[in-house]
Write a structure and sequence with these properties.
By secondary structure, this protein is mainly alpha-helical. It is built from 5 helices and no strands.
C-alpha cells in the first residue's frame, strides 16, 4: 500500500530540488550575478542535491521499496515545473508537442501511484 505521507514528502522534496536547479541552470539568462559567479552557483548544487536524495528516499519508502516509481515521479515533476517556469520567465509558448509531453508526465505519475503490482 502506498504511504501518502511519505509520498507527499518525496514529491515536495523533488519539487523544491527541481525549482532550485532550474534557477541554478537558467539564472544566467535572467540575472547578471548568476553569469558572473558560475563557481558559487555550481557550489550551490551540493545543497540542492539533498532535496533529490530526500525525494528519492521518501518516494521509494512510500512505494514499498520500489525504485522505478521514484524515478518516474521525480522526472515528471521536473518536466511539469520546467514547463511552467519557462513559460513564466521566458514567455515560451506551449505547442502541441509540449502539451502531449506534459500529458505523458501526468500519465506516468498516475500509473506509478495508481497501478497496483504484485511483487517487483
Amino acid at each position: 500500500m502506498i504511504k501518502l505521507g511519505l509520498l507527499s514528502k518525496g514529491i515536495i522534496s523533488f519539487l523544491i530540488g527541481h525549482v532550485l536547479v532550474w534557477y541554478q541552470l537558467n539564472g544566467q539568462f535572467l540575472w547578471k550575478w548568476f553569469r558572473e559567479n558560475e563557481w558559487l552557483v555550481a557550489a550551490g548544487g551540493f545543497f540542492i542535491s539533498f532535496f533529490f536524495i530526500w525525494g528519492t528516499k521518501y518516494t521509494v519508502d512510500a512505494m514499498e521499496g520500489l525504485l522505478w516509481p521514484a524515478r518516474f515521479i521525480g522526472f515528471s515533476i521536473g518536466m511539469l515545473q520546467y514547463a511552467l517556469f519557462v513559460g513564466y520567465y521566458f514567455n515560451e509558448g506551449m505547442n502541441l508537442k509540449t502539451w502531449v509531453s506534459l500529458s505523458l508526465c501526468f500519465i506516468l505519475i498516475a500509473i506509478q501511484i495508481l497501478w497496483k503490482t504484485q511483487g517487483t
